[in-house]
Amino acid sequence: MAIVLSIIMEISKMYIDLERLKIRGEVWFDFAAAIEQACKNADCAPDLRHILFSIRDIPYGRPTNNTPEDVLREWRGTCSGKHLALHEILTSLGYVSRFYMAQCRITPQVDWIPSEVQEKIPEEGIWDVHNFLKIEVDHHEVIVDITWPESLKRDGFPVTSSWDGKENFNLAVVDIGEYVEIPANQDGLNHKKQCLRELNSGAMAECREKFIEALSDHILSRMVDENMHCTIERIVNRLVR
User: What does the DSSP 8-state code read for residue 167?
Assistant: First the structure.
């Protein structure tokens, strides 16, 4: 079976109930139409680059529970949900993929953070936990970070917009510390929640929540207001071309 059909059918089998997906009341696309279109093009197979960039271009924002299921059902996700979804898709297609967690410190001096979002960050900064993948490509390991959609590159976000199949992706955050692999038999989301509880408590935990919420709202409003959201037709066209 061609890779494109495998991807779409794996997603539909594991996650998608074929309901119309919405964001802020606006219908973006009908996923059932995408599956039908992909099946018609089942003899076409996308390369790994197209798979990675398709998940990358899911808008940044919190879905209901930030699980892979909700990321794909609601077509939005943060670093944890998007990378867990990509990890499961790649694994189901036979790629070696590893899920990583890293502590990082975010300060208001980070130049790509919008000014209205910087105001949510205390001067001393806040601790966060960032997720990304390492995948095996042609017998070597590559860092993959698909946190930021390509449309955010014009705003200075560290987006990886091209890839030669060998180089590491840009990490979505700069001030990153040591990172650890979360084994496949363990819950990556629970690991992240536990680490965040250890890093932030009380007022600092509240500051982080306000920062993530403000950043998500800013990005989603930009993508909706300027008609820069990704449609499933664009995703499928990229996969089958």
Answer: S
